[in-house]
């Protein structure tokens, strides 16, 4: 039995080459033929219109409606769905479009077997009404007791406005943008300059007397100043943060929160977007209140600052000393007692109390070597740091590091 094999390929004498592009002469002839045919068709259509014969409907490419080419309306429109869909649906097909008939042997909609369980329920989610909880998109139907997903007026973080339920996400973003422009008086909400305004009621810069002032500063701080003067005089019109006001001018939180006393400009925090907004204060207003109302003068402010720094340093040193004494009580005293106990036990032998001369520091009465019980370290009248033995009253000077 011969083994089957694949027949060899037919050898070609010449390799197939890709067709060469048409020459310019051939391209010119094709274009001339196309334009000539188009002119003839236009002439025939003009003759038909002059004779009162309506022209046949054509596509944008010039095709006439035939059995294979169907026009679904004006030229250029796609075919209708009915032209490509099946008009006769088989009775065995489980399609909702096929109504049960009486001629199918009594089989109706109730006789059909139920569809798969995983397709028995279909949930249509409205993502515009959902909240991104950083762990998935949830709605109030999923967790009705979660206040952060509620769109009512009392929901969300305090002081933050939530999107109304009847408004889409695009409309809500547009409204937020409009409110931001209104708050910053920018874009179409920027106040215009009119020559018809009264000269007395017109607001001018307090430095250069120009009318092109910053209306945001005029509304927030009540200060009419232009942008050029703000950059020219930073010692008066620079902005201070809340921390700088508390550290440099020794102001308190209640004073900085009082908008009638010190107005402030709120801006988003540049470090973290979810932190509280920055409170920016105008330098000359802060200095005027600190120098003229609270402390009286810059010298009094400097004196108060030095006094607080001295108190802070004194408290810091006292705390350090207290910790150092506690450390001495826990380590040095115990170690000293253990060393003295070892030395006393080594010196006291079988004849510890007889025949040996008494040494300095031994207990009177032959009771063994005296062990000092040092008290707390104190400062004497000369300013030296000394400690006294509670038993014999001996004083030694101790150097603190």
UniProtKB/TrEMBL annotation:
Q: Which UniProt keywords apply?
A: DNA damage, DNA repair, DNA-binding, Metal-binding, Nucleus, Zinc, Zinc-finger
Bias regions of kind Basic and acidic residues — which residues? 26-35, 94-105
Question: Domain XPA C-terminal spans what residues?
Answer: 236-286
Where is the protein situated, by its record's location annotation?
Nucleus
Q: Which family does it belong to?
A: Belongs to the XPA family.
Give the Gene3D superfamilies listed for this entry: XPA C-terminal domain (3.90.530.10)
> Which GO biological process entries does UniProt record here?
base-excision repair; nucleotide-excision repair involved in interstrand cross-link repair; nucleotide-excision repair, DNA damage recognition; UV-damage excision repair
Species per Swiss-Prot/TrEMBL record:
Thermothielavioides terrestris (strain ATCC 38088 / NRRL 8126) (Thielavia terrestris)
Sorted alphabetically, the Gene Ontology cellular component annotations on this record are: nucleotide-excision repair factor 1 complex
Enumerate the GO terms in the molecular function aspect.
Answer: damaged DNA binding; zinc ion binding
**Tell me, what's a Pfam family for it?**
XPA_C
> Mind telling me what this protein is named?
DNA repair protein RAD14
Give the residue ranges for region: Disordered.
1-113, 136-164, 335-356
């Amino acid at each position: 039995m011969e083994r089957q094999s694949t027949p060899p390929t037919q050898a070609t004498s010449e390799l197939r080459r890709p067709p060469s592009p048409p020459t310019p002469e051939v391209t010119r002839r094709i274009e001339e033929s196309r334009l000539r045919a188009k002119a003839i068709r236009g002439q025939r259509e003009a003759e038909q219109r002059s004779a009162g014969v309506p022209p046949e409907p054509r596509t944008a490419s010039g095709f006439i409606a035939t059995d294979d080419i169907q026009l679904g309306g004006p030229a250029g429109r796609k075919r209708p769905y009915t032209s490509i869909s099946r008009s006769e649906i088989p009775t065995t097909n489980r399609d909702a479009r096929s109504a049960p008939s009486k001629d199918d042997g009594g089989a109706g909609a109730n006789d059909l077997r139920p569809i798969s369980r995983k397709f028995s329920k279909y949930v249509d989610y409205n993502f515009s009404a959902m909240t991104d909880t950083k762990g998935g998109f949830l709605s109030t139907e999923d967790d009705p007791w979660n206040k952060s997903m509620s769109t009512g007026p009392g929901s969300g973080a305090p002081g933050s406005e939530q999107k109304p339920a009847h408004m889409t996400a695009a409309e809500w973003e547009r409204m937020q943008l409009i409110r931001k422009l209104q708050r910053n008086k920018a874009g179409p909400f920027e106040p215009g300059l009119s020559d018809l305004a009264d000269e007395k009621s017109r607001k001018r810069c307090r430095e250069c007397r120009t009318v092109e002032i910053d209306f945001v500063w005029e509304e927030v701080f009540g200060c009419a100043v232009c942008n050029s003067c703000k950059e020219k005089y930073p010692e008066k019109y620079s902005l201070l943060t809340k921390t700088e006001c508390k550290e440099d001018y020794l102001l308190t939180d209640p004073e900085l929160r009082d908008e009638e006393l010190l107005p402030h400009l709120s801006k988003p925090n540049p470090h973290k977007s979810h932190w509280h907004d920055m409170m920016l204060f105008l330098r000359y207003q802060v200095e005027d209140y600190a120098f003229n109302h609270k402390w009286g003068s810059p010298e009094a402010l400097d004196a108060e600052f030095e006094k607080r720094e001295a108190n802070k340093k004194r408290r810091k040193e006292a705390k350090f000393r207290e910790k150092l004494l506690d450390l001495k009580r826990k380590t040095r005293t115990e170690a000293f007692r253990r060393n003295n106990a070892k030395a006393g036990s080594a010196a006291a032998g079988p004849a510890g109390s007889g025949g040996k001369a008494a040494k300095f520091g031994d207990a009177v009465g032959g009771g063994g070597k005296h062990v000092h019980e040092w008290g707390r370290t104190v400062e004497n009248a000369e300013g030296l740091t000394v400690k006294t033995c509670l038993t014999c009253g001996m004083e030694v000077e101790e150097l603190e590091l």
